[in-house]
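Narrative summary of target 7.
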Amino acid sequence: MTTIAYRDGVMAADSRVTYDSEAGGTRMHKCEKLFRKQTKDGGEAIIGLAGETAPGLLFLDWYGSGKKPLMRLIDGDADFTALVLRRDGLFVYDAWCRGEKVLDEFFAIGSGSKAALGAMYKGAGALEAVDIASRIDPYTSAPFTCLSL
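Modeled conformation, tokenized:
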């Protein structure tokens, strides 16, 4: 679970991963959720991943490669969302690997997205919005990171 927020050219994320353990119970650890990626055409993107880790990382490997979308994402039951910031705007992707341009001034994905959006409606920047979401959403936790193009 995750909170990734975008505002004013900045994308911010928490670092908590939560999953059910094969040994029983819920486990948590920290990981990276924001990635800077050079695309085949020489462009640059910042990608934030929320949801299932493995499909999200497959998307990260695919994005900007110039290759056809991965059928194992499209045909499978992958459950992830990718927020992609490029020079021409902000885009949201899912397992269909087809980006939809976000026209809103700010945006958030993940389990803490509603809290982050509420914070941004009150003027918070992306990083502050993720911090506020972490106080409400048990699946969002520090440390926080942020990147911009």
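The helical segments are 53-62, 71-74, 113-121, 126-134.
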